[in-house]
Each structure stands twice: as C-alpha cells, then as structure tokens.
Amino acid sequence: MFHCGGCFMTSNDQQRRKIGKRKKENALPGAVINPRIPELRDVKTGDFLDAHELATKAHQDVPWRHRTRLSLIEAQHRKQPIWVCAVCGVMVRLASSRRKNFFFRHVVEDGRCLYVTREDLPLDVRAAKYDGAKESDAHIEMKKMIVESLQADKRFRTDTIFEETSWKSKEYPNQRRRPDVQAEFEGGLRIAFEVQLSSTLIDEAVSRRDFYLQDGGLLVWVFRSVETQNPRMYQGDILFMNSGNLFVVDDETVEASLNERRLYLKNHHIIPEADHGNIRLTWSAPRLVAFDSLTLDPVGQRVMLYDYDAEEAKLREAMHEELQKDVRSNFLDFWRTNEPLQREREIYKVADQYRDLRQHMERNGCQMPQDSTFPLQPRVSSSRSRSNMEF
Ligand SMILES: [Zn+2]
C-alpha cells in the first residue's frame, strides 16, 4: 500500500470506492461504508469485533458513542489499549466523517497497516491478524498454564519446553512457525500447542496443521472453554479437523497436572447418533484425561480420546444396512398390497403411500418414476407419463 504525498489517496482507496458503490445497498446506517479498519480486536479477550456494527451503535446510541470515544482516548494516554486494529495491532479511535457517519481509524495512520479490503485479504494479512490475536491477556495466561502443566510432567523434557519460540522446518529451513508452546514428548515426538480463544481463521489453522505434519510434529489445539450450545464456527472447524475431540486447559486441569505430575487436559467430544436417517450429534460430558493416555496420530494430525470419525463411519454403515432392509420389505409390501388395484380412479388411494416408497427408495440410491400410476397401470404411450419417468 502506498500513499501520495499529502492527500492520503492510495490506489487501494480507489479500489475501495468501487467496492463501496456495490456495498452501499447493504450498508449499516450511520457507519462509513468502507472504513479503513473493518475489524477490531479486543485486547483483553482476543475477540474480533465488527467495526461496522460498532459504528452503527455509535450512530444510534449517543451516550455510548461519547463514553467509548473517551475511554479509547484515555487508553491511548495510559498506553493500555482496549481495542486495536485486528491486523496491525495499532490502537484505534472512534471518528466521524463529514456526513456524520462513524468509523474507526488508527491513532497513527502511517500506511503500515496491511488492511486493504475485506474482500481480498492476502495471506500475510491473515497471518498478521492471527498473530495479533495472540497478544490478548487471556491468551498470555493460557500459555503460562500450559507451560506450568508441561513442566510438571517428566514425559516432556524440561529443556524442550518453550513459549513463543521459533520452530524451523527441517526440510525447508526458511519456513518457520512460532507455536504458543512447544515441547518434546517421550519417544521424541515434537508437539506444538496452539491456544484457541476466539478467532481461528480456518486457512491459517490448515496451513499450520500442514506445516507440523510435514515436519513430523503434532499440532494440538487448546481451548479455554468449549461451547456446547451455539458453538462458534472456529470451534467446529477445529473439532472436525480433530476427529470430534476438543481439549481445554483451565484451573482444574492445571491443578490435576501439578498434583499428579502428569499433563492433564479436559476432553470434550461429540458422539454420533442415528436420527431418522440422519446423524445427530451429542456432546460427551467433559472429562479430565492424562495426555499420555490419549491416541496421538501425527499422520492425521489428531489427538483423540474418542475416534468420532471412525464411530460415524460405523454408524453410517449400520444405518445403510437398516435402510436397505426396510426398503426391500416396503417395496414388496406395496406391490403385494396394491396388486389388485387396477382401475385408474382408485390410484389416489395409494398416492401418498407410493410417494413415501419412492422417497425411501431414493434415499437408498434407487430412482423410481414420479407417477404413481406407472407401476400399477403403465401408460408409456402417453407423452405426459413419459416425461415423468426418471430412471
Ligand atoms: Zn491496522
């Protein structure tokens, strides 16, 4: 991103204007349509906040607007940020345009920020946003808790436990990652612990997983808590990358780790259940588990108490067999029962029954003609019934 001398017009500004036109229709009232910072980060929690929504709130709620402005300025004076730009981590101020629309701007607007547009975040912006989220108080606290727990467990060599230290790729030394915490487990398996509070970007999660996979390490995601009601997207992303298991580090696990001199985590996993031909998920009760008792799968980059993927496959197999059995008997029943039904005016009597059978067959991979008169009284000569045949 470059600036021309005085006016702060950039090529990105021009691009932004074009997108701005398109966005006008869905713009939130009182918010600048294409603000310089679309997303903020709450320094305390690590949560990302939608700058558009906050700008609209500033427009609608006058006391909130002024209290927020004041507290952001106070934070700047005290050098204790509250909200920062999600990408560059610079503190922000709430400002308004000449048209009285609100937006957030960097307290220092020197063109360093990688935010260009929301539509097209380059990879380095994503990584920057991800790394930025690591500065939250909650995140720092979590890293300490993991280190403390690891140090209690002799299965992890003390001189291999590091926080925020570079992990260089063996094969490509110029590629590296900086996991929150890393340690070597007995047997020599290197493990990267990444704390996940509120904000995984799925692309970043995938690229990190691939990095450790390629390097023969194992990536373990660690949460502060697990939402079993209305879980957020990032939690589901990690859940299904890890065969339905999530792990938490909290006060209880740290206490267990220190008491038992063994790394303990809290496991939550999902369980598949058959529900009218679909799979329904339920959550297990959270359970304290020793790390050394878990299944470690560096090839699949999974750490498991329960192999959800395998259980789901078994269940689907059983459901399929059940369905096939049903289909066979339904099919025979239908024809045995309705065989004497010959006259067309009686067809309506079995229309619903035929529809159910047809849907049942279809779920099992068999197409049947849509026209219920067909199996009883074939009318292949009529053009109407021909168009309804879907073999
Ligand atoms: Zn920024």
Q: How would you describe what is shown here?
A:
37% of the residues lie in helices and 19% in strands. The chain folds into 3 domains: 11-132, no CATH class; 136-306, Trna Endonuclease, Chain: A, domain 1; 315-387, no CATH class. It is of the alpha+beta class and 391 residues long. Bound molecules: zinc ion. Zinc ion binds at residues 37, 85, 87-88, 90, 106, 113, 115.
The helix/strand order is HEEHHEEEHHEEEEEHEHEHEEEEEHHH
Calculate Rg over CA atoms.
29 Å
User: What's the rounded overall pLDDT mean?
Assistant: 80
Count helical runs.
11
Task: Say which molecules are bound, naming each kind only once.
Answer: zinc ion
CATH C-level name of the largest domain? Alpha Beta
The CATH architecture of the largest domain: 3-Layer(aba) Sandwich
Instruction: Indicate the overall shape.
Output: globular
Q: Please count the beta strands (DSSP E, at least 2 residues each).
A: 17
The proportion of residues in beta strands is: 15-25%
